[in-house]
Design a protein that fits this description.
This protein is an all-alpha fold. About 60% of the residues lie in helices and about 0% in strands. The longest helix has 24 residues. It is elongated.
Length: about 200
């Protein structure tokens, strides 16, 4: 499957509102009603299926707060990394970090660094997560998933946007189960001070 951001005509790390707006515009353009009895009907239906799959993939990541696991990533990644991604998605960040430390591939692997950053982010440790995302982008600059995570986190830490690298986080990941993502980030800023010696 093509990169879902590319399918929807979006830059990596697009917001939920941007994803919804892009989907709506494309769905209207490629609606079956527009191509009924047209020679392009089959092509439009195929394009619409691709658009639906891309939308579902991106929105699924946002709604579940996962670590960006995609079918293409799982096919290309070693089995251990696939398992670690699933641990992070399931909220087992400490176990994921234990396995990553056992692998010890930080100097050469963008995926290793990305997963470390994802695990630390899940724990709410933004200062620890950011250098790993930076390393992932440096080691694998062509990987749009790593770039999206890095820029989202950097911008949220700078106060420019609300949200994590995947635009949401499972409730309770930072001990703020009553908060939505925006409020959770404000809570963390106040409580943790982003590395200024706070309680986190």
């Amino acid at each position: 499957m093509r990169d879902p951001y590319e399918v929807l005509g979006l830059a990596p790390g697009a917001t939920e509102d941007e994803i919804k707006a892009a989907y709506k515009a494309l769905a209207q353009k490629y609606s079956a009603e527009n191509y009924a009895a047209s020679p392009l009907e089959g092509e439009a239906a195929q394009r619409m299926q691709e658009i639906n799959e891309a939308f579902d993939q991106l929105m699924g990541a946002i709604r579940t707060g996962n670590a960006g696991v995609s079918a293409s990533n799982e096919q290309d990644a070693p089995d251990e990394y696939v398992q670690i991604r699933r641990l992070i998605n399931d909220g087992q960040a400490d176990e994921a970090l234990r396995r990553l430390q056992a692998i010890g591939a930080g100097e050469i692997s963008g995926e290793w660094n990305f997963l470390c950053g994802s695990a630390y982010y899940y724990k709410g440790w933004l200062d620890q997560a950011l250098p790993y995302f930076e390393a992932a982008v440096r080691l694998s600059p062509e990987n749009r998933e790593y770039s999206a995570a890095y820029y989202r986190l950097r911008n949220s830490a700078s106060g420019n946007i609300a949200g994590n690298p995947y635009s949401s986080m499972p409730q309770g990941a930072m001990g703020c189960s009553c908060c939505d993502m925006c409020t959770a980030l404000m809570c963390m800023d106040l409580c943790c001070g982003f590395g200024r010696g706070g309680c986190c």
